[in-house]
Amino acid sequence: MTQTPPQRPLDRPLRVLAAMSGGVDSAVAAARAAEAGHDVTGVHLALSANPQSFRTGARGCCTIEDSRDARRAADVIGIPFYVWDLAERFREDVVDDFVAEYEAGRTPNPCLRCNEKIKFAALLDKALALGFDAVCTGHYATVVLREDGTRELHRASDMAKDQSYVLGVLDEKQLAHAMFPLGDTVTTKDEIRAEAERRGLAVAKKPDSHDICFIADGDTQGFLAKHLGTAEGDIVDESGTKVGSHTGAYGFTIGQRKGLRIGHPAPDGKPRYVLDISPVNNTVTVGPAEALDVIALTAIRPRWCGTAPEGPGRYTAQLRAHGDETPVSAAMEDGELKVTFDEPVRGVAPGQAIVLYDGTRVVGSATIATTVRRTAEAATKA
């Protein structure tokens, strides 16, 4: 893997809008931007239409508590602070999209969609209209300014915290106005918390949010059932034989093993996994682990972090937010991204994002539409 090239220093201080979620990362990022001499204004995005409930443990975000934490952090840093209501836009572009994707039998990534549609589209557009030069967030990634004036998105210096996967949807214009003060620092999360404490930020010990922010209790299946209702359907094996039943195909994901509620074991006694989800006939197909082996895929709606690549190329690919890299060959054909894996990978589902890398540089992201699996027979012979 190549090393991240040096970033050219900025020529002047910038007017920066710091997106402050109420967590420790965004607070420290805003503080660092202000300390670097930029003219920083903090903003908290109100993304929930009913933010009355307080967060439970480390789940959820965008509550009144988070807004207050962000305001207190801005006061300590000494920067102006505002709350912007983007709840309707968030519901349309992220929540409704999330529900529709599951209804169609796909597995979406709402964090990636939020970065694309909210933080670096709706928020950035408003920031630029108000005369700001950049939007600052607490993401762990690095924007590199090249000598020719172009920008690249690279992984964070600390791979353990790297968040470039969910930022792979940013285009060149958005990268030109993005600032990630935490991305080029090799520090542990404990050190970030220690820095927050030194700065007098009360969020220093606040737990990180995780899972899906708009499903505060973590019950994704319950959330989908509320929006889509229940619908009895069959769980079948690869031969089409019914082996169980379910109350909604949307409650399953490709590669899922637990919670299948299958009445009897497979003939070979091995665990079974979700292989396919068919919303048309509300059927879930299960089978052996080796039937999940994917050797190629087609992805749609590519977004390039800079100039689109020309011709076929060799890259590494990441298929989930905290997944490993895998070597691939990739090329654009008729507006679609065709990817072939050097070695089979498992748990690849339509709706997920595939992000291509050239060393530490993020090349771009696309949404997986279809996959090609290695057959069970071929897997046995391999």
What is the average per-residue confidence, as pLDDT, rounded to a whole number? 87
Sheet/helix structural class: alpha/beta
Secondary-structure element order, N to C? EHEHEHHEEEHEHHEEEEEEEEEEH
So what's the oligomer here?
Answer: single chain
Name the strands of the widest sheet in spatial order: 12-15-14-13-16-17
Fold topology:
Blueprint: E1 15-19, H1 24-35, E2 39-46, H2 64-77, E3 81-85, H3 87-103, H4 110-129, E4 134-136, E5 141-145, E6 151-155, H5 172-175, E7 178-179, H6 189-198, H7 220-228, E8 233-236, E9 242-246, E10 273-278, E11 283-287, E12 294-304, E13 313-318, E14 325-333, E15 336-345, E16 353-358, E17 361-373, H8 376-381
Parallel strand pairs: 1-2, 1-4, 2-3, 4-7, 8-11
Antiparallel strand pairs: 5-6, 8-9, 10-11, 12-15, 12-17, 13-14, 13-16, 14-15, 16-17
Helix pairs in contact: 1-2, 1-6, 3-4
Features of the shown structure:
8 helices, 17 strands, 382 residues, alpha/beta, disordered C terminus
Give an overview of the whole structure.
- The chain is α/β, with parallel strands linked by helices.
- Helix content is 24%, strand content 28%.
- The protein has a 6-stranded antiparallel beta barrel with strand order 12-15-14-13-16-17. The chain has a 5-stranded parallel sheet with strand order 3-2-1-4-7, sandwiched between helices.
- Strand 13 (313-318) and strand 14 (325-333) form a beta hairpin.
- It is globular, with a radius of gyration of 22 Å.
- Mean pLDDT is 87; it is low at 1-9, 53-60 and 376-382.
